[in-house]
Amino acid sequence: MNFSKALISWYLQNQRDLPWRKTVNPYNIWLSEIMLQQTRVAQGLPYYLSFVEAFPTVHDLASADEEKVLKLWQGLGYYSRARNLHATAKFVSKELKGNFPNSYKELLKLKGVGEYTAAAIASISFNENVAVVDGNVFRVLARYFGVELDISNSKTKKTFQELANSLVPKNNAANFNQALMEFGAIQCTPKSPDCNNCIFNKSCFALQKKKVDQLPIKTKKTKIKERFLNFIIVKDCESNFLIEKRTENGIWKNLFQFPLIETEKKLNENKIVELIQKEFSIENVLHFNSEPIIHKLSHQHLYIRFFEITQNTKNPKAISFEELIKKPFPIVIHNFIESNYF
Fold first, then answer.
1. Cross-strand pairs, 244
2. Which residues, including other chains, have CB under 8 Å from residue 101's CB and lie 6 or more apart?
3. 219, part of any domain
4. How far apart are CA 73 and CA 71, in angstroms?
5. Distances (CA, A) of 113 to 89, 120, 126, 305
6. Residue 120 belongs to a domain with what CATH number?
7. Mind listing the pLDDT tens digit for each residue in 187-225?
């Protein structure tokens, strides 16, 4: 069986109806690919539609205020993607006159564009014969061809890239790459793939050798850091709110939050209240959640509590609730605001 031909045929019959598949405009392809990094299509789709409506062209995105960009991105996670997206839009708009580079090599020079994204744009928008390699591709190729190499090893990436490149049909890279990604997303899934109804069930190495659950091989596990975050909702005598902008590198950079007390370990509620009383010189502290909200990120597990204090004087730095809800917040804080103040 010709793997590439069969895969493209499957794709043309089974592809999902997605808006970025109705264009080869590099702006739209770039936008969708950045949004779908480590993100499911179902989650990313409404964000893509919102961005295209708000910023129809790269010039519109480039001229937007960063807070608006981050607000629209709110809830999609990995916020460095949004900051890089905005920076790249400014570069393409100003330095390249709105024209994206038309080759894989040049696309790699854009901020936030890695090998996978560059290959996707180059092949879909400019039909360059370069293959995409991501988690879906690792899985499909490892299972079908029996590549029993550890994908957490950086050297393995080269092996998969060479294999994928060798499979790209000349002048049909766009369909092949999208077929490979789609097949991994909806057919050859990480868990419980539908092997009985798979076009490759007679020739798949993993299925024949009963190794579907074992491939691809990945031995290195992500080390998870635990953090304990206690957010203090500070309201002044006019019920205005004190917030602060996170400017340090790390999670949630340039997003807003309530004043924070972070501890090295989990403390009981009374201990945290004592810290708040000392920090803000105030007696009355209202607590919202005795048990922390656990917010899981790829490399961190955050244990989050919310407290509220009311000051007896007007705070010149405090803002109204109407102003507050226009700001971009981490989704866990946004959800708290929606649940408790709307």
1. 257
2. 107, 109, 110
3. no
4. 5
5. 12, 10, 16, 36
6. 1.10.340.30
7. 999 999 999 999 999 999 999 999 999 999 998 788 899
Number of neighbouring beta carbons within 10 Å of residue 56: 12
Q: Which structural domain, as residue segments, surrounds residue 314?
A: 225-341
β-pair type (300-310, 286-287): antiparallel
Asked whether residue 53 falls in the same domain as residue 200, the answer is: yes
State residue 306 phi and psi, 5-degree precision.
-120, 135
DSSP E strands in 53-132: the ranges are none
Chain centroid offset of residue 118 CA: 17
- Which two tokens mark 259? 């004043």
Report which DSSP code applies to 92. Answer: H
- Residue among 106, 104, 97, 135 nearest 119 (CA): 104
User: Same domain for 208 and 229?
Assistant: no
Say how many domains are in the chain.
2
Mean pLDDT of 55-79: 97
Looking at the chain, how many residues does it have? 342
Q: Are residues 237 and 187 in the same domain?
A: no
Q: Which helix (H) or strand (E) holds 226?
A: strand 225-235
Do 27 and 65 lie in a common domain?
yes
Q: Say what the pLDDT of residue 63 is.
A: 98
Does 237 map to a domain?
Answer: yes
Residue pair 277/203 in contact by the 8 Å Cβ criterion: no
Which positions are catalytic? 33
DSSP 8-state assignment for residue 298: S
